[in-house]
Amino acid sequence: MPVITLHYEDLEKLTGTDKETIIKRVPMIGADIERVEDEYVDIEFFPDRPDLYSVEGAARAMRGFLDIETGLPEYEIKPYKVSISVSEDILKIRPFLGCAVVRGVKLTSSSIKSLMDLQEDLHWGLGRNRKKVSIGVHDLKNIKPPFRYMAVDPEFKFVPLDYTEKMSMKEILEKHPKGTRFAHLVSGFDKYPIILDANDNVLSFPPIINGTLTAVTEQTTDLFIDVTGLGEAVYTALNIVVTALAERGGEIEFVRVIRPGGEEFVLPDLEPKERLLTTGEVKSLAGMELPIEEIVKQLERMRFGACALDKETIEVKVPAYRADILHNYDLVEDIAKGYGYENIKVKIPETYTAGKSHPISLMRASVNEIMVGLGYYEVMPFTLTSEKINFENMCREKTDDVTYVLHPISEDQTMLRTTVLPNLLEILSLNQHRELPQKIFEFGEVVSNETTGQHVAAVSIHPQANFTEVYEVVDAFMREMMLSYEVKESKDPAFLEGRRADVYVNGKKLGVFGEFHPEVISKFSLGYAVVGFELDLNDLIGKQI
C-alpha cells in the first residue's frame, strides 16, 4: 500500500487545524501511521482511496472528518482556452486521453514533490505501473496551444526530461532510465505516442517521459495535465490530480478534446454521481439503527453530498474523485467511519465458542519471527498474477498445474501464482526509488493443481548480493526451524548456473535458492544483483495438524 509523506506546514495550512489533532484522528478514516518525524508524518493509506495519495486530498478528507468543512466539495471550471486534437493512428496504441488546465497555482519545493509523488502513486494504484494510466504535468509558459495527440516515427527527436541533448524516441527507450524501465509498454508498435504543441514542441512521450521544455518549477503557475491510457481510469486519475491542485488554490479550466471524425467534448468532468441509499441498508450492514438525519450528517462528514428524500431514502452525491464507491456497501462503510467505530456500542455475542490458533497461523508466526530476525521486511503481494510474471520473466517453462481466472479483468491478473518469488521481484521493481539494500519476504499461498499450499520466499538486492549471503540465510532459517537438510545442484533456469542449489529434507525437495540470472534481473528492470530462496512448508504444517 502507498505510504504518503505529509509535511506539517502544508498539512496544517490546508486542513486548518494542528498536526497533533490530525495525527490522532487520521487512522480512523482508514490509514496507518508509519512514522512521525519532526517535519513530516508518513501515512499508509488503503489502496482503494487514491484520492488520499497527496497532502491536498488528505487535508480535504480531514476537514470533513473533523467537522471543519463538510459536504460535497464544489469546484468551478472555467471555459476552455486550450484544445487538443486526437489523431486516428493513436487509437490503436493508447486510445484514451484526459486533459485539463489549472491556472494560478502557487508551488513550493514541497508541493512540487507532493504533486510528483501523487503522479507516481497513481501510476501504481490506478495505472498498473503506467500501463493503464500515465500522467503528464506541464508548465504552460513555454508551449503554445492547440495541442495534438498523435503517433510518430520512432526516429522523431526531442530533449527528454533531465537531459540537455536531443534523443530519438528509439534512443530514449534504449538509454534513458525511464525509457529502459517502461519500453515494454510501447514495444510491438511501429509508431509511438506523442503530444505536440502548435510549434511542434514536445510536451510528452506517453507513457514514458515528458519533454524538458515543460518541466515544472517553483516559478510555474499555469499547468496543463494530460492523462493517457487504455480505459476510463484515465478520467478518474485526471479528476484526482486537478481537484488536488484546486485544493491548493488553482483554477480549473476545461480543455476541448477533438476526436477523429470531428467528435468534441470538454474535460474534466467533475459532475458527481448520484446514488440512492435507504436507512434499511445502513441498519442491515452497519448493525446500527441511525436516524436519517444522523446518516446524512455522517455522509457529509465524509465529503459526500446528502439529502433525505423521505423518511427512509437518501440521495447521495459521490465526488468525481472517489474511485472506490462501487456499491452502496461502500457508502455504509463511510457512514460507519464518520460515526466512529469507537462510538459503536459493544454487544456480547449471543453464542459462546472457544477458539485456538490455526496451524497455518502458528507457522506464519514462527516464520515471521525468524525472517524479521534475519533483517527482512514482510510484504503481502496479491496471489493473482500473469503468465508473463510467473513464468516468462523468471525464464521458466510454463507448467500444466496452473489455475486460471475464468473472467479476468486485467492482463496482469489472469492466474493464481504457483510460486512466490516473481511477486517479490515485482515489488523490488516498483521500489527502485528506495535506498539499498532491500530485503523482503513473504509467507503466503500458492495454488498448484487446484490445491492451495504455503510457501516462504525471500529476496535481497544490493551491489554485493551473492550466493554465500543467501546460503547463510537459508542455513539460519532451517536451523531455527530445527530441520536437518541437504543441498544438491539445481537446474532452475531462474538462477545462475553454479550459483544455485535445491534444498532437500528427508529426501524430498523443499525448494531452491541462489543468485538470480541476469536475464531475470533484466526482465524485472532491476539494476543490481539479486539473491533469493523459496521453500514449500506444506509438509511441516501438516505435521503440526
Structural features, described:
There is one protein chain. It contains 16 helices and 27 strands. The chain is α+β, with helices and mostly antiparallel strands and 545 residues long. The strands form 6 sheets. Strands 4, 5, 6, 7, 10, 11, 12, 13, 14 and 15 form a 10-stranded mixed sheet that branches. It has a 7-stranded mixed sheet with strand order 19-22-23-27-26-25-24, sandwiched between helices. Strand 10 and strand 11 (202-205) form a beta hairpin. Helix 1 (8-15) packs across helix 3 (55-65), helix 3 crosses helix 7 and helix 9 (292-301) crosses helix 10 (328-339). The longest helix has 17 residues, at 109-125. It is globular.
Quick overview of this protein structure:
29% of the residues lie in helices and 29% in strands.
Structural class: alpha+beta
User: How many strands in all?
Assistant: 27
Task: Summarize the biggest pleated sheet.
Answer: 10 strands, mixed
Helical percentage: 25-40%
